[in-house]
Design brief:
elongated, 22-stranded antiparallel beta barrel, mainly beta, 44 strands, six-stranded mixed beta sheet
Length: about 950
């Protein structure tokens, strides 16, 4: 708390929330949520002006200039409070990830801790966090703002992420979310390549509002509890407004063993002996690959194993790790927030906001797989890869020392190796459990007002923001290499508290005393800090036939710092799980921007309005150099009901702190080694591959015959990375006919179509390990072979995957949105909304052009991501007085796995909800009940996905989810 207090003091210069927020709509929403929904810009703007005078100009996401909201320059979708409530979801990220323009991202269905290692981008596993990814361009290329200002990036105690964790924002403080589906670097700076998500918080409220929700899966698991409370005070006489609130969410787990799809490593598998394989050689009774053969123990548990008791190791001995994971990770979140506004006189306002959120979350994996020996493949210089098992160890059944042939530093010791590896699943230690505790504090303060220059009015705001994210992770089930070395070494050296270790006696043979000696609880921590200061001025300069020429200019100074500190035992290379090294970094930027609006014509034949806009931004980064981005936009209304618009935008993304400073770690990626003599390899069938592999250290006799599996890819940040560059073309048509509203046909009717075309170059990525292996094996490329470290027996010990500016991405698509609502009838009013996306192109040129992948209509597999050609949501809503109901259909087109001969068929999810708001209670009480996935659609099976045999970024957890919610307003 002392550290946070000092950080708060350093940000005391805090002044001003953007003038964009001065006109945000009031909190007041009926408990039935009537009129809410996920709507495209035309309908959104109707909502945005609820608290404004007719024709009054405001600031909306996508522009810094105050304007009539009916003249929106960019495609913006708004998810309002009522739409969030209609989903029955307790995570805002889960709501946003259902948007057709969204492409998933990290969420609480992802359970990667202990299973895949740390991703190459230095961001860590991100356990328990939730992100938003637009246009399949990765969450790091979508900028997340809160009330138009930057928000501190998330962290989960396993790295330095480059994205905002949406689970750190208390849910009860959110009024609505505006999603700008276009690049906006000239207006908002780095990261806004794919678009911008702007979380608008509650500004005004009168009285008390309480809500509580309980939900559960039909299978009886995944219980979710959600409590929200907020209270507002408005004093018009003193000009004071105060709103404060609290949120609590408790999401229980869904285990992989409780759903059919995830009970084995592969879809449809029923036993480890199935030909498809996939079960782990780190068996509960051990696998001993030595000069004596490929063996295991025959009668576990055995406290005195002998050579005679060993038998051949078979597929039936392999370990099925699949049922020990989570399908839905447990997460408990509670937060508090406040928003204060005080009129100071003369049109000047002081605004102060603060929020705090605590997240307690958990990932879980199967029991620790302990691999020891020269072919163990731990990589990163692990001591486990160098260990020998002494003949005097009382549990060594061979009567000779199992010799690794190397010293602890990896250099040859002059003795011949006589074993490959010993693998043992440490079931006695219990499952690997990763617990995260994440504290997030954010505060902003604002001064805003207006001044006149002759007859022209200008608006100004000065803002300061502070953000602190502090995460701690504990991991139980790990063991220390240095203590294992003593426990399996010469028994004469195992003195004091040392307890000899039995690796050969099978399940139950490792005693509590043995575990107490070698085991430890790993404790990692990470933090992120943000200081952001902005100044904005906007106003009108002079008049043209189409209206007043308007301008906005501004300055931003931002400081970001972060660190990741793994457990000292792990950073010393002595842990049995994923290795990691400390990382720390800091940068600052100075940025200026200007935006210009030029209305050329208005209310003349064929030109109800004609306008051109432009913006430019120059940013200077202390680590990544300077960049200038710009945008130009044209808007034409040939008639009042039809808007045609187009824009050209350049963008950039500065390398994140994790990408620049990320410490050395390991990512376990499913890779096929072409040098293997197994059926999946090419050693036996391709003479060129055989010759190149032998030159790279693979035994010529073909004894290296490993099936495909996870191979260790060593990752690390790179201080020499350049910024990513992009260009974004958009074109759109909005039709919102006045005749439909005036003629009694509709109370709301609009249709909008938008085209987007995005190119990203210098995209930051690690060299694809599949390309590395193939270039070495097929082409004999010396540079690629140098990235692969093999053992004397041909096993891959590590593949280097340092980040570089390697990739380019080109994607195109069309968004379609339609909204219709009937006038009131004798049986109420009906509404229909449609939001769909058609992916026209997604081509990734990776690894400096060695790979060109057409992702459209495919499932990438690990790391999981589907690229369906079509995605869409449609909602039918009915409201009649105190009773309402809605049905939402969600469609995901079928895709084909890139790395397997498997098609994931299309899925249609249906969600229903019924709402009651008793009129005799003055709409102060509301009740809603619903079922998500009412048709009980299971996700399509995925062979190459990371875990649980389905893609958690795209599809729902299997099973129907029902919920009941009560709302009270006083």
């Amino acid at each position: 708390m002392m550290r946070d207090a000092k950080l708060l003091q350093s940000g005391i210069a805090i002044a001003a929330l953007s003038i964009a927020l001065a006109s945000a709509p009031a909190f007041a929403q009926d408990a039935n949520g009537q009129g809410g929904g996920v709507q495209e810009s035309g309908a959104v703007l109707t909502q945005a002006t609820q608290s404004e005078e007719p024709g009054e100009e405001i600031v909306i996401t996508g522009s810094r200039i105050r304007r009539d909201p009916l003249e929106q320059t960019s495609p913006v979708i708004t998810v309002d409070d009522a739409a969030i409530q209609r989903t029955g979801l307790t995570s805002v990220a889960d709501v946003l990830q259902r948007l057709p323009s969204a492409s998933g991202g990290l969420n609480t269905k992802v359970n990667n801790s202990g299973n895949l290692g740390n991703p190459p981008d230095g961001g860590g596993v991100g356990a328990g966090a939730a992100e938003i990814d637009l246009r399949y361009l990765s969450a790091k290329r979508t900028l997340v703002l809160v009330d138009g200002l930057r928000y501190v990036n998330g962290t989960s105690g396993s790295g330095i992420p480059s994205t905002v964790d949406l689970n750190t924002i208390p849910a009860s403080m959110i009024d609505r979310i505006e999603v700008l589906q276009a690049g906006a670097s000239p207006l908002y700076g780095s990261d806004a390549i794919a678009g911008v998500v702007n979380v608008i918080t509650k500004q005004r409220q009168e009285g008390l509002r309480l809500s509580g929700q309980f939900g559960t899966f039909r299978a009886g698991d995944g219980h979710t509890y959600n409590l929200d409370a907020s209270y507002g005070i408005q004093s018009r006489s003193s000009g004071t407004s105060v709103v404060f609130g609290a949120s609590y969410v408790n999401q229980k787990a869904v285990r992989s063993g409780d759903r059919r799809i995830s009970q084995f490593p592969n879809p449809g598998q029923t036993a480890c002996t199935d030909p498809v394989g996939g079960c782990s050689s780190a068996a509960v009774n051990g696998r001993f690959l030595t000069s004596f053969g490929n063996q295991t123990i025959s009668g576990p548990p055995d406290a005195t194993p002998t050579l005679a008791e060993l038998r051949p190791f078979t597929a039936a001995d392999r370990f099925n790790f699949a049922p020990f994971n989570y399908l839905l990770t447990p997460s408990e979140r509670y937060g508090a927030w406040m928003s204060f506004r005080q009129e100071l006189g003369g049109g000047t306002n002081l605004r102060v906001k603060a929020s705090y959120n605590r997240r307690n979350s958990q990932n879980q994996a199967a029991f620790e797989p302990l691999f020891i020996g020269p072919d163990a493949g731990n990589g990163a210089g692990s001591l486990f890869d160098t260990l020998s098992i002494d003949r005097t160890n009382p549990f060594n059944p061979y009567g000779v020392t199992l010799e690794s042939g190397v010293n602890p530093d990896g250099t040859p010791n002059g003795r011949a190796a006589n074993y490959s590896f010993i693998a043992r699943r440490l079931v006695e230690a219990g499952q690997r459990t990763f617990n995260q505790q994440v504290d997030t504090f954010a505060a902003t303060a604002t001064l805003d007002g207006a001044f006149n220059v002759r007859t022209r009015k200008f608006y100004w705001d000065a803002n300061a923001s502070l953000g602190v994210n502090d995460a701690h992770q504990s991991f139980t089930g790990n063991v220390r290499a240095d203590l294992v070395a003593l426990a399996i070494g010469p028994v004469a050296n195992c003195t004091g508290g040392c307890v000899p270790l039995n690796l050969f006696g099978g399940a139950g043979s490792i005693t509590p005393a043995m575990l107490n000696y070698i085991g430890f609880t790993e404790r990692d921590k990470s933090d992120q800090h943000l200081w952001d200061y902005t100044l904005n001025v906007s106003g009108e300069l002079f008049d043209l036939p189409g209206g007043a020429v308007a301008v906005a200019v501004g300055y931003e100074h931002r400081i970001q710092s972060a660190s990741f500190t793994p457990d000292p035992i792990v950073s010393a290379g002595l842990g049995a799980d994923i290795p990691a090294q400390p990382a720390r970094g800091r940068y600052n930027s100075d940025e200026i921007y200007a935006e210009l609006r030029v209305p050329l014509l208005k209310d003349v034949p064929f030109f109800a309005s004609l306008e051109v806009d432009g913006a430019v931004r120059h940013a200077s980064y202390s680590l990544s150099g300077s960049s200038t981005t710009y945008t130009g936009t044209g808007l034409w209304k040939p008639v009042a009901d039809l808007l045609i618009r187009g824009s050209y935008t350049t963008g950039f993304r500065a390398p994140s702190l994790g990408e620049l400073f990320g410490g050395r770690s390991r990512f376990d990626l499913p890779v096929t080694d072409p040098c293997s003599s197994a059926a999946t390899g090419q050693f036996q069938t391709n003479a060129t591959v055989r010759a190149n592999c032998i030159a790279d250290g693979v035994p010529a006799n073909g004894s290296y015959a490993e099936d495909p599996g996870q191979l260790p890819v060593l990752t690390q940040g790179n201080r020499d990375l350049d910024p990513e560059k992009s260009r974004n073309i958009t074109a759109g048509v909005v039709y919102s006919p006045q005749w439909a509203r005036n003629g009694g046909f509709a109370s709301l009717f609009n249709v909008e179509a938008n085209y987007y075309d995005i190119r990203v170059r210098n995209a930051i990525a690690a060299f694809d390990p599949n390309v590395t292996l193939n270039n070495c094996a097929l082409n004999g490329d010396a540079a690629s072979c140098a990235l692969v470290v093999r053992t004397a027996n041909g096993f891959i010990n590590q593949i280097t995957g340092t980040l570089q500016n390697l990739d380019s991405i080109h994607t195109r698509g069309i968004d379609l949105t339609a909204n219709y609502r009937t006038p009131e009838t004798g049986i109420g009013s009906f509404g229909v909304s449609l939001n769909a996306t058609r992916l026209l192109k997604y081509v990734l040129s990776a690894s400096n052009g060695f790979i060109v992948l057409d992702r459209k209509g495919t499932e990438r597999g690990s790391p999981d991501q589907a690229f369906p050609k079509y995605k869409g949501n449609a909602t039918i809503d009915w409201q009649s007085g105190w009773l309402g109901a809605s049905f939402t259909g969600r469609y995901i087109d079928g895709v084909v796995e890139s790395g397997a001969d498997n098609r994931l068929n299309s899925r249609f999810y249906g969600d229903v909800q019924v709402r009651l708001t008793p009129l005799f209670m003055g709409k102060r009480f509301g009740i809603s009940a619903g079922v998500n996935n009412v048709f009980n659609s299971d996700p399509p099976a995925c062979i190459t996905c990371s875990l649980n045999n389905f893609d958690p970024t795209t599809y729902d957890v299997p099973g129907q989810f029902g919920y009941l919610k009560l709302t009270v307003g006083l």
